[in-house]
Amino acid sequence: MAEYGLESLEFFRALADDKLIGARCEDCGALTVPQRGICPKCFSSSMKVEEVEGKGKLAAYTVIYVPPTEMKNYGYGMKNPYASAVIELDEGGKVCGQLVGFDLSKPEEIKIGTPLVMEKIVRGEGEEEKVFLGFRAA
pTM for the complete prediction? Predict the structure, then answer.
C-alpha cells in the first residue's frame, strides 16, 4: 500500500488511487473512515492509517432532488436526483458516499442492508477533475 497520512486530503489522494482508507485506533480498535488524528470513541491520538476493502451494507440513504450548487453544476436536480448514503463497512465503522447504479425513480425499492462495494466517481476534466466516493450494489 502506498503511504497515506492522517491529513484530510490524503483520503482523496487514496481514493484517486482506487483505495479507501481510514484510521484504526491503536488503543480501542475503533475504525474511522475517513481517517482522522483523534479517535471519536476514546479520544486517543494513537491512530494508524489502514486501507479498508470498500465493502459493506447500506445503513441509511436519502434521495436529493434539490442539490447544493456544486452538485447542480454536475447536472443533478429535480429531473436527475442523486442518493447520498451511510454505509456500514465490513471492517467496522461507517462512511458516507453517493449511491450509484440504483433506480432513483423508485427509491422505495432501495433496501437497507443491501450489500455494497466502493466505486470511485470522477467528475470534471484536467485540472478541474475531482474524485468522490460512491458505492454500488455488490
Answer: 0.91
Smallest Cα–Cα separation from 132: which of 77, 80, 81, 83?
A: 83
Tracing cell 491520538 back to the chain, one arrives at 45
pLDDT tens profile 11-45? 999 999 999 999 999 999 999 999 999 999 999 99
The secondary structure element, H or E, covering residue 60 is: strand 55-64
Rounded to whole angstroms, how far apart are CA atoms 32 and 126?
31
Residue 11 has phi, psi (to 5 degrees) of -60, -45
Contact between 90 and 124 under an 8 Å Cβ cutoff? The reply is no
CA dist 58 and 83 (Å) reads 12
- Map grid coordinates 459493506 to a residue: 56
- Rounded to 5°, angle at Cα 134 from 31 and 53: 40
**What pLDDT does 106 receive?**
94
Burial grade of 78 (CB within 10 A; 0-12, 13-18, 19 or more): exposed
CA separation for the pair 50, 30 (Å, rounded): 11
